[in-house]
Amino acid sequence: MNSEEVNRAANAIAAAEAELQELPLRDRTRRIQSVIAAQTTLVGTAVSMMTEIQSNSTLFITNLPIETTHDALETLFRQFPGYCDVRLVPGREGIAFIDFDNEAGAASAKDALNGFKISATNAISVSFAKK
Fold it and tell me: How high is the mean pLDDT in each 10-residue block of the chain (131 residues)?
């Protein structure tokens, strides 16, 4: 074996050792990533549960076009069971409240219409109104 072969072998051994040392780190990185994913899932579940707890029979609608009318919103929301009324807020363009006689109807409308494109440039945001 000449010195060049010895150097190549030493370099190969060093590279293999470096790879072996990285393996546990990669595994830890994967484990850390899975823990982060699990935490993200738990946070999302907690937020969903909080939203469910805070549900009520009134919806808060935002990102409405300025030209939105009472009749247009009534047409959109009256298809859901328990619909009662639309309340546009005078002096506050772009928002409205929708009243239902029960939480289930409000939740159904929220789930179906959140993100609904009411115009070419406006996707409405539907959430439960704060009590």
Answer: 74 70 60 59 58 79 95 96 96 96 96 95 95 78
pTM of structure: 0.60
Closest CA to 101 of 130, 69, 59, 49: 59
Question: Distance (Å, rounded) from C-alpha 94 to C-alpha 64?
Answer: 4
Question: Is it true that domain 58-128 has CATH number 3.30.70.330?
Answer: yes
Q: How far apart are CA 109 and CA 27, in angstroms?
A: 45
Domain spans in the chain, listed from the N-terminal domain onward: 1-53, 58-128
CA separation for the pair 17, 28 (Å, rounded):
18
